[in-house]
Amino acid sequence: MDGMHFFIGMLISLFVIADPFGMVPVFLSLTDGAERKWCNKQARKCAINVFILMTVFFLGGSWVLEFFGFTVHAVELAGGLIVGSIGWSCMNPKPPLSDTEHAECRERADVSFVPLAMPIIAGPGAIAVLLTKASHLHNDDASLLAWGLGMVAILAVTISTWACFRSADIVHKCLGPSGLKAMTRIVGFILICIAAQMVIDGVVGLIHDHFPDVLVKSS
Q1: Which end of the chain is more exposed for a tag (fewer CB within 10 A), N or C?
Q2: Does 48 score more than 90 pLDDT?
Q3: Which of 162, 153, 192 is nearest to 11 (CA)?
Q4: How far apart are the first and last CA of the chain?
């Protein structure tokens, strides 16, 4: 497996799914009226939580799949459906939190883990990508370099999340509501493309494993 190709693919997939720029309004709404020091602390803790969550699912995901008996192709199919649904929701934007959930979160003394880190940034879509990437590396007996590049991708997304939330006011002023909406729709389209590729890879993998004669005849 080409290490740089793997790194770029994982970085783009995670960044698009996490969408730290698009989640800036959510962060601002959850921290509205709070002291600047507390908001900065929430941004920092959220980034740390995101890094820990993504690292756990990336490094330990393949063993979790083995324990439950899931194949990488099943993860690709399920992950593709999840990522596709997220992409579709981005194309037709709705608040990530309902009014009830938002009011409940506003009452929390700490919003860095729930809902910011999980499920807003490191949610089901990001977990699906991490499990898929980890399964490919595990099955291909990838080198430590490939695993290291995966960790660098996670770190880059984590730093981007911290930077966006740390400078949430500036990001919101620069992009504006219309700019954020446009970016969210672009992200949605990219997510749907990523989901389609995941589903295609999963279907081809399943056919290759269970119906190899079909591929032989088609070729």
Answers
A1: C
A2: yes
A3: 153
A4: 24
> Which token pair is 192?
């749907």
With 0-12 / 13-18 / 19 or more C-beta atoms within 10 angstroms meaning exposed / middle / buried, residue 31 is buried
List Cα–Cα distances, 61 to 92, 134, 196, in angstroms.
31, 6, 22
For residue 142, name the pLDDT band (cuts at 50, 70, 90).
low
Q: Which amino acid is at 116?
A: L
Return the closest-CA partner of residue 57 out of 160, 113, 121, 128: 128
Distance CA 115, CA 107 (A): 12
pLDDT of 67 reads: 80
State the amino acid at position 167 in one-letter form.
Answer: S
Q: Tokens 């799949």 identify what position?
A: 65
* Residues 14, 161: Cα–Cα separation, whole Å: 11
Q: What is the pLDDT of residues 172-202, one digit of tens each?
A: 999 888 888 888 889 989 999 999 999 998 8
Q: Is the pLDDT of residue 215 over 60?
A: no
| Among 75, 82, 84, 78, residue whose Cα is nearest residue 196 | 84
For residue 157, what are its two tokens?
A: 């997304």
What are the residues whose beta carbons fall under 8 Å from the beta carbon of 59, sequence distance 6 or more?
Answer: 134, 147
